[in-house]
Amino acid sequence: MDLNATVARVTERIRERSHDSRHAYLEQMQKAAEAGPARAHLTCGNQAHAYAAMGEDKAALAEGRAPNIGIVTAYNDMLSAHQPFERYPDLIRRAAREAGATAQVAGGVPAMCDGVTQGQTGMELSLFSRDVIAMASAVALSHNTFDSALFLGVCDKIVPGLVMAAASFSHLPAVFLPAGPMTSGLPNDEKARVRQQFATGEVGRDKLMEAEMASYHGPGTCTFYGTANTNQMLMEFMGLHLPGASFVTPNTPLREALTVAGAKRAAEITALGNEYTPAGEVLDERAFVNGMVGLMATGGSTNLILHLPAMARAAGIRLGLEDFADLSDVVPLLAKVYPNGLADVNHFHAAGGLGFMIGELLKAGLLHPDTRTVAGDGLERYTREPKLQNGELVWVEGAGETLNDKILRPAASPFQPTGGLKQLKGSLGHGVMKVSAVAPERHVIEARARVFHDQEAVKTAFKAGEFTEDTVVVVRFQGPGANGMPELHSLTPTLAVLQDRGLKVALVTDGRMSGASGKVPAAIHVTPEAASGGPIARLRDGDLVRVDAVAGTLDVLEDGFAERAPVQADLSANTHGLGRDLFETFRRNAGPATEGACAVL
Hints:
Shape: globular
Strand order of the largest sheet: 9-10-14-13-12-11-15-16
Strand content: 5-15%
Largest sheet: 8 strands, mixed
Radius of gyration: 24 Å
Oligomer: single chain
Number of strands: 16
């Protein structure tokens, strides 16, 4: 199948837009690669420090002929998705030795759990933790003793930060190793029902806690299709995982075999061998377009509209919201995974998963087939699935057809003909909406605004019974420059209750919503943000606002709106407590949401 004309056009537009920055990036990568294995240039003293604690690997390291793999790990057991990484370094070191290589933990990176910080002050550090992770990874790899790198990370900001680091160390091959989703627990729709019951006072905190603990119950990624699992999809579509690695559950023989295979592959693709695959060549324009196509086809998290531009900038590539919008217009929605359906990622994987989806999109001409990947050249490899046969890891033909068409459909008969994201532009600025889980009759909301400066004020108004008519709830001063752009996911039960009462409700914010949010129409990432005097700062209670995901518009329908002076808010409370004082530099230097809200690139 020929490449879809829109996919080709968007790719070429990105290539032209990025010409100068990408050219400079590739030149730097080439110079670093030509310098050869880093250890050859270290002094004996440098090397002695690096190898002092390496026991049986000391001789191989000192000899300098065997590949040395640097491990960057986001392990902690605060994140269920990252807890399995505790065992990975020993497993990787053994696998490296079997491959005639060595491996060292180069460093750890911070990894916060957005599930713990949702609705809490700590969430104001969450987005910028991505940039900190990229910087911490750079510190780890700066020892310059490595021939390739393994990145251990799964969740929301962690994978984007690690990709930014992998792109920055472009001459090193980079293999990403996931940990997999937890086994299925309480169904996600039942969890959501109990949350709404708690919001209306129908059940107490004991029932809410019981439901939450039954849903989040063991090691592995949360099973809904939020940002963490969207990250895993991207790593496969972009060729940084081994094929089929994303959604194999933790602590199973297949998961362990994939980890071993990933470590051995990292040794095979260094500059010391014949399959040199630097990260900078994997992360090209085609890979990012494939990632955006995967985002649309799966109805993935809106957070990746922030992260993908930041990841791309690290590789000298410039993405724009129009790229997402144009691809969304031609990429069909092939998956129904919660919140865009009742299934979880384990059900999705069992139905044929990413292998089936990649195969369908390749056949439809919606993916670049000729990308470089850590598994070898060509995305066709990612239509195959890993199996253990007689204790050996092999890749076999994947599902040629969907095994459950309520979860996963072929490109010829999708759930809907276009992707799950819409770009919005108008007198209120530039934003996006995830529409894949929003009922079509709610794609256009026109109502009077209620304006708030924090999410707690919305909840207080709800408890006081103040929402009695159709409403556009505006929560402003939530952008990166104001308070770090926290997710407003804790508003979802409140707004869903209003919607279930028969009101037409929409959210407009310069902040973020979680990838777990869905059925309430939400115009998010509105740029320019209120803190920089954007139009959203001119809104008043009672203004008539139209949120239109059909026409792609976001407007206030009031005469004289453009002439109003923007409201200024006292943001001093955002500058201290729980480490926020340490992040003032990030807030002051963050770019706009349309460019990834990045403070370091």
